[in-house]
Design brief:
alpha+beta; Glutaredoxin; 5-stranded mixed β-sheet; 5 strands; about 20% strand; Thioredoxin-like_sf; DUF1636; DUF1636 domain-containing protein
């Protein structure tokens, strides 16, 4: 009897948490706590949300003045970077934004569509990359 292989579809979205951020004047690195809490909350949010997102930590996202920083990314979608995220208080807002972000075709939303504190802690929104290739004079096409 042949064995049947199952494959897991890769996540289509990514949440990245800075693990190097420190509270001012402290050695505390709240990014590790945030990463653990966010993973747990996304798993509890259910298959519809949690399965869409890969959640990982990274050593630095250059948001050192606004710890903790969290980025949302997906192919063909705007990327968001949020700062001043509190691992104890902001998990619900991060999960709600994940649900909303997953539903957006291009990832673009106004600040009023971002839940809670995320309305005011957006550090950057980067449009999806669009690559334009123009023919160079004298080149083969």
């Amino acid at each position: 009897m042949p064995t049947r292989q199952t494959t897991t579809k890769p996540a289509s979205h990514r949440i990245t948490v800075c693990t190097a951020c420190r509270h001012t004047g402290s050695d505390c690195r709240p990014g590790y706590e945030l990463l653990a809490r966010l993973r747990d909350a996304m798993n509890r949010a259910g298959q519809a949300t949690g399965a869409l997102f890969e959640i990982s930590g990274v050593a630095c996202m250059a948001g050192c003045d606004r710890p903790c920083t969290v980025a949302y990314q997906a192919t063909d979608k705007a990327t968001y970077l949020f700062g001043d995220i509190d691992p104890a208080d902001d998990i619900g807002d991060l999960v709600r934004f994940a649900e909303h972000y997953a539903s957006l075709d291009d990832g673009w939303c106004s600040s009023t569509q971002r839940p809670g504190k995320l309305r005011h802690t957006t550090l950057v929104r980067v449009p999806a990359a669009i690559f334009v290739v123009e023919p160079v004079e004298g080149s083969l096409q």
